[in-house]
Design a protein that fits this description.
heterodimer, A: mainly alpha, two-stranded antiparallel ribbon, 2 strands, globular, B: mainly alpha, 78% helix
Chain lengths: 486, 226
């Protein structure tokens, strides 16, 4: 049963890639991609339940399915589905009909790499999958072939490849440390690494962990390694931005969480958690600065991703059942919400023909439904109740209060308030500032573009008022497996 | 542990190959001609292949012969050929504007090697491996890493940046051969393959840069800020 579901996860996007490549019709390609996304989503739902009860191994132990992996898969599958629906409406507006099959092939391929990465049991293979996500998504970022998008793609691939090579160095050092204990050849799976970690020399382990943290931190977009993120997220087409932000970052975050759980059992003291907390707090700080002064709508969303990755890092850094549960809950909420935000930004950008915030005025008049959904999303993403992010951020704050890094809680609260004010100030100007464009002509948005925004907002609202008990138990199991923190 | 009981001949061979590779990185650092970079990279790849074979012979890892052959094929022949094609198509022969003169970057590179040595001798002392070839391997690995980053930082041509990334990878690969020769074969193969994909992607991107930006100088890429 589980094997079948895992196969669907891999084969559905693969079939979409092949299908999009062999035929030249854009209409068929978008439906193939949508079908693959729906199949993946339907396959992930039962996997969530089946993953309970510990790590299950497949294919000679190269594939691992544990609750943490299943959770990241769920976030990825949701974003993939929403983005595929949105892409049908959005990509038609670009007027690049003949290149669309290629786009959907890359899109499904990108989803495929992200669906594979969390399942990798071998640390080295996980690294390779993360590297592959970069290579595929580079071409999605540069898809529009404008001067800016090529620039963004180039910066993306150079910065992330260089950064992630540090993670490879760290991985090699982990292997080397382990080989001094276990002998020259062994399978470096997450479980073996956790077992051997207490016997690895602490200096080697510290160096290896820091390298891995910086390396995968680049991919997650933690400041100060975030420099590629605003460019790549703002220059890709909106569905791609949603995938990058809502799905890709989580996939790399899972690696960091797993490495933290490895070094946790090695008695390195509070160092790993403190470093992660510091990176998280610094990401919030950088994001706050750039959000307040931002002039472009999609870069605003991108810096908001830096912010939320910072919050995730704080959650995993604070650790403990509460911190991990909060971070995981935040992961899902952020995936839903950031997709919503990028969809809204994409529609507004198309409608006004500009990315600049000062040229977008009177959104309610021009885009009543999309505008309302987008505004609700903006309120949600700044962490205001009654949406899911409020709950998860409060949980992470509570986790922090019980730990040694109380300073970070204070920093987090202040910066979240700054971001709340700065972020919503931009939205106030776009919605309620009457200067400039007053020619409020209501425009019809394609149903393909509006539907995914509803699909993102409603669960967000539900998750904000009701944290299902089953979900809590699910998180507790992940927290137990990730070591429960410091 | 293979590292602690190596014959003197084996360990001097390893050291020789590792040190020549490090010297070649300095050749790249000290020149501003793109062809020099490429040649140095190709020779370095052959040296790493020789190293794999030597480690395979002395350490009794027959699978390393396969890695050596593939290293020659991929890193020694195919990658340089692909990059040569990109260089020819671009018609750019050398770095015109360097943020740091070759002489100064040589000095900076030397400082980075010293730093790498301090770190690795500290690690070696911690592990009781001081004075062995492991310390040298770590030093070379870390210095190639750092110098690769230096090249990425001070060079502006797209080709230089690709080669800078490849130096990063070469450093890791070289260190891996000495430190963890028993690393599963699958990993090494996939990393080799991965590298090929990286360079292919770069080839496509460079062509885009040419047609849509009109230059492969990264100083032209300054529109996205803030």
């Amino acid at each position: 049963m589980m094997t079948v579901l895992l196969l669907i996860l891999v084969l559905a996007p693969t079939a979409a890639v092949v299908g999009c490549l062999v035929q030249r019709s854009a209409r068929v390609a978008e439906m193939l991609n949508l079908a693959a996304a729906s199949a993946v989503f339907l396959a992930v739902l039962p996997l969530l339940g089946l993953s309970l009860g510990g790590p299950h191994l497949y294919w000679d132990g190269y594939i691992v399915l544990d609750p943490a992996a299943a959770w990241v898969l769920l976030c990825t599958a949701i974003v993939y589905l929403l983005a595929s629906i949105y892409a049908v409406g959005y990509m038609r507006l670009l007027g690049e009909e003949e290149r669309l099959p290629g786009f959907y092939a890359l899109f499904a391929g990108f989803a495929l790499t992200m669906l594979c990465a969390p399942l990798m049991n071998n640390v080295g293979v996980y690294w390779i999958m993360i590297e592959l996500t970069t290579l595929v998504s580079t071409f999605l970022v540069g898809f529009e072939l404008g001067r800016e998008s090529i620039e963004a793609a180039w910066k993306y691939i150079i910065v992330v490849s260089a950064g992630i090579s540090l993670a490879l160095l760290g991985t090699v050092l982990f292997y080397w440390g382990g080989s001094l204990v276990l002998g020259p050849t062994y399978d470096m799976t997450w479980a073996v690494l956790r077992e051997v970690a207490p016997r690895i020399n602490p200096t080697v382990l510290t160096l290896a962990f820091l390298l891995v943290l910086v390396g995968f931190g680049t991919k997650v977009g933690l400041a100060p390694m975030h420099t590629w993120l605003p460019d790549a997220h703002s220059e890709g087409p909106a569905p791609v931005s949603a995938m990058l932000s809502g799905a890709l970052l989580n996939t790399a975050m899972l690696g960091i969480a797993r490495f933290v759980s490895v070094v946790d059992v090695a008695h390195l003291g509070p160092m790993p958690h403190t470093v992660l907390v510091a990176l998280g707090a610094f990401s919030l700080f950088v994001a706050a600065l750039f959000i307040v002064r931002q002039e472009e709508i999609k870069r605003l969303m991108a810096y908001s991703s830096v912010e939320h990755m910072g919050v995730l890092a704080l959650g995993f850094g604070f650790g403990g059942p509460l911190g991990i549960a909060g971070a995981l809950y935040h992961m899902l909420n952020h995936s839903l919400n950031k997709s919503l935000m990028f969809f809204g930004a994409g529609s507004a950008m198309r409608s006004y023909g500009s990315k600049e915030i000062r040229k977008i005025r009177g959104v309610f008049g021009r885009l009543p439904v999309t505008g309302a959904l987008w505004l609700a999303g903006a309120v949600a993403i700044t962490g205001a109740p009654p949406f899911g992010l409020f709950l998860s951020e409060i949980t992470i704050l509570r986790a922090g209060l019980g730990g040694p890094n109380v300073w970070a809680v204070a920093v987090m609260v202040v910066l979240l308030i700054v971001i709340f004010i700065g972020f919503l100030a931009h939205f106030r100007r776009m919605y309620f500032d009457d200067r400039g464009d007053t020619s409020a002509v209501g425009q019809n948005q394609s149903g393909w573009c509006v539907l995914p925004m509803w699909l993102a907002l409603i669960p967000l609202l539900v998750l904000g008022v009701w944290w299902p008990h089953a979900l809590w138990q699910f998180f507790m199991q992940i927290a137990a497996q990730l070591g429960g923190g410091s | 542990m293979p590292i602690s009981h190596l014959t003197p001949l084996a360990s001097s061979l390893f050291s020789l190959l590792a040190i020549i590779s490090l010297v070649l990185v300095f050749v790249m650092l000290g020149s501003r001609w793109l062809k020099d970079y490429l040649l140095a990279f190709a020779v370095e790849s052959w040296l790493i292949a020789a190293l794999s074979a030597t480690v395979g012979y002395y350490g009794h890892y027959p699978e390393l012969y396969l890695v050596a052959i593939l290293t020659i094929l991929f890193r020694g022949l195919l990658l340089p050929y692909l990059i040569l094609r990109i260089i020819r198509r671009l018609g750019v022969e050398r770095e015109l504007h360097i943020a740091m003169q070759p002489s100064s970057s040589l000095v900076a590179g030397a400082l980075l090697v010293i730093f790498a040595f301090v770190v690795s001798s500290h690690l070696g002392a911690q592990l009781g491996l001081a004075g062995t070839v492991a310390v040298l391997a770590l030093t070379v690995m870390l210095s190639m890493k750092l110098i690769g980053f230096l090249m990425l930082a001070v060079r502006h041509q797209a080709i230089s940046q690709i080669l800078g990334l490849l130096v990063l990878e070469n450093g890791i690969f070289l260190g891996t051969q000495i430190l963890v020769p028993g690393m599963p074969l699958l990993l090494e193969l996939v990393i080799l393959f991965d590298l090929l994909v990286v360079v292919a992607s770069f080839g496509v991107l460079v062509r885009y840069l040419m047609t849509h930006v009109g230059s492969t100088d990264s100083r032209e890429l300054k529109r996205l800020v803030g």
